[in-house]
Specification:
Radius of gyration: 24 Å
Low-confidence stretches: 1-21, 28-47, 550-562
Structural class: mainly beta
Number of strands: 36
Shape: globular
Largest sheet: 25 strands, parallel
Distance between the termini: 58 Å
């Protein structure tokens, strides 16, 4: 149930009596946010002005919030937000306050992108999602006198934890920001789930985040938008839930490889995904930690422009000789792909998996409701063979033909096509794509240079006794950093530019002694460019050319300076 019109009726059949709690002052403005100072501590009745507490008995609603977590608080939180929208103070919405406690919900809470919602701290205020497929909080644009256009959101979420007791069975997104330009995140934890932590959609630019923690979530952060700023971001146990159920190429039914148990003891790199995925211009990641990288790479970038990663600690965390082969940094990496489980019908095509695609909106109804755009993808026949003119099993199609489209994946398990027959398509216009077709991401070019400075990039751990790896520079390269694209068999003709400058970063291991497993190595593929400036503590890192970026072309492919 999304934003409701305010209905002021007496509480009927409530499961818990309202708890009278006076809201504290609104948290002080985030530095540089431009928000107005916090109001004085003494406030008039919340029904007239000032912050609104979801447990305030002064606002009589159809249901009441239960901070003990015994009863469902979905209705109460929705009703308070609706009341706020219907009763603004002049042209302003009042902040919504959740006092210390656990608030159980069973549906996504939709909040306007210009609303400030806050609690008493990460360990004090907890919103607990019990619906396995719903988002916890979705921030959406609501055109109103308070927000006449998408550039005037400036809402925020502060001082709380979003959590699900369902752990790996929870497939929703903890915090989805749709067209939330200028939004702020301050002192928030997203914890324990098999979906996504933070996902941005539409045109979410100028996002500012301070002290965000994402713990034990399958895909922690996907940030798509220009000028986003992340300060002090900590990601713990990416790619697994709180009990160790994991997702990666090395996990079988949620269990990580174990040679003693004969469970997939050959460790493979998973170059499809990074725990912190960024795309956009002038993106800043300032201070943070990502560990361990057992299940996915540390940071992945796509289509970045003049961006900076500074003071990051990224570690594989060695234990009992277990090898770890995921990179600390992927710039482009391997484009994800999936197969279709039904034919294309009315712009919608069901797929085998939506797990690792960055353009994603959990509730399919929101795509049209809020006009949320997607990204560029390619549809190919199941018998695709690059440049082949042989007849395909798809009628009227050659095996080497494909169609480029724009679209977005969703929680209904489908790919929603928003525009067809894009530039570069070779298939006949509006091909009827059947079950079993392939959908692959079309990676975009990077412009200018990504700078990585003063960071500890130690993600690779070589195999100990009883373990082996599947590292192979041709198809499955392993390295502390991989710059450029990695073949996936479907978009291998695309080689977006990728340029990185490393400045005083720490790499452990001697690359010349570990070229296959990649300890201490930076590997560069076609269109990749690397510059290194200085090595702290006497550590060194070597640049290695992957197939297609030969050493004879090194002068034009990259520059290495010590």
């Amino acid at each position: 149930m999304r934003l409701l019109l305010a209905t002021l009726i007496l509480c009927v059949g409530c499961n818990a009596a309202p708890v009278q709690t006076a809201p504290p002052p609104v948290p002080p403005p985030i530095q540089g946010s431009g928000q107005t100072p916090a109001p004085p501590a003494a406030q008039p009745n919340a029904a007239a002005s000032g912050p609104i507490s979801v447990t305030d008995p002064g606002i009589k609603l159809a249901c009441s919030a239960d901070p003990t977590g015994a009863s469902d608080s979905t209705c109460a939180i929705e009703a308070v937000i609706a009341y706020d929208l219907a009763n603004p103070v002049g042209s302003a919405l009042r902040p919504v306050y959740l006092p210390a406690g656990t608030y159980k919900i069973s549906a996504a809470i939709y909040v306007p992108v210009n609303l400030r919602i806050y609690g008493d701290g990460k360990t004090a205020t907890i919103i607990e999602q019990t619906n396995p497929t719903a988002n916890t909080i979705t921030a959406v644009p609501e055109k109103s006198p308070q927000q006449p256009n998408s550039w005037m959101s400036d809402g925020s979420i502060s001082n709380m934890t979003l959590f699900s007791p369902l752990q790996h069975l929870y497939k929703g997104t903890f915090l989805e920001l749709d067209d939330a330009t200028g939004y702020h995140i301050n002192n928030v934890e997203l914890s324990d789930g098999g979906g996504r932590g933070l996902q941005t959609g539409g045109y979410t630019e100028r996002l500012t985040s301070y002290d965000l923690s994402v713990n034990a979530v399958r895909w922690p952060i996907i940030s798509l938008g220009n000028e986003s700023r992340f300060y002090s971001t900590n990601i713990n146990a990416p790619g697994e839930d709180g009990y160790g159920y994991c997702w990666s190429r090395n996990c079988v039914n949620g269990t990580f490889a174990n040679p003693k148990a004969a469970v997939h003891a050959v460790i493979m790199p998973d170059n499809r995904v990074g725990a912190f995925y960024i795309s956009g211009a002038a993106v800043l990641l300032m201070g943070g930690s990502i560990k361990s990288t057992w299940n996915e790479a540390g940071i992945e970038t796509q289509a970045v422009f003049s961006s900076l990663i500074s003071d990051y600690y990224i570690e594989g965390y060695p234990i009992n000789g277990q090898p770890h082969e995921n990179a600390a940094l992927l710039m482009n990496g391997q484009a994800p792909w999936t197969t279709t489980t039904g034919p294309l019908t009315n712009g919608l095509i069901p797929v085998q998996s939506t797990d690792w695609f960055p353009n994603y909106i959990n509730n399919p109804a929101d795509i049209a409701a809020y006009h949320l755009g997607g990204g560029e993808y390619r549809i190919l026949p199941s018998d695709y063979l690059a440049k082949s003119a042989l007849p395909s099993i798809v009628p009227g199609l050659q095996r080497g033909q494909f169609e480029n489209v724009m679209g977005v994946f969703s929680g209904d398990g489908a790919f929603h096509i928003q525009s067809r027959n894009w530039t570069g398509s070779t298939a006949p216009a509006n091909t009827n794509w059947p079950t079993g077709s392939v959908i692959a991401q079309v990676q975009q070019g990077n412009y200018s240079t990504l700078k990585v400075e003063d960071s500890h990039l130690e993600s690779i751990d070589a195999p100990g006794k009883g373990w082996t790896t599947g590292c192979n520079d041709a198809t499955n390269p392993c390295a502390e950093a991989i710059i450029g694209t990695i073949p996936n068999g479907y978009t291998d003709d695309i080689h977006p530019s990728a340029a990185v400058q490393f400045d005083l970063d720490g790499f452990w291991g001697v690359c010349s002694q570990n070229e296959v497993t990649g300890e201490g190595c930076i590997k560069v593929s076609k269109a990749g460019s690397v510059e290194e400036i200085g090595f702290p503590n006497g550590t060194t890192a070597n640049v290695i050319a992957l197939p297609g970026a030969t050493m004879t072309a090194a002068a034009s492919a990259w520059t290495v300076t010590h």
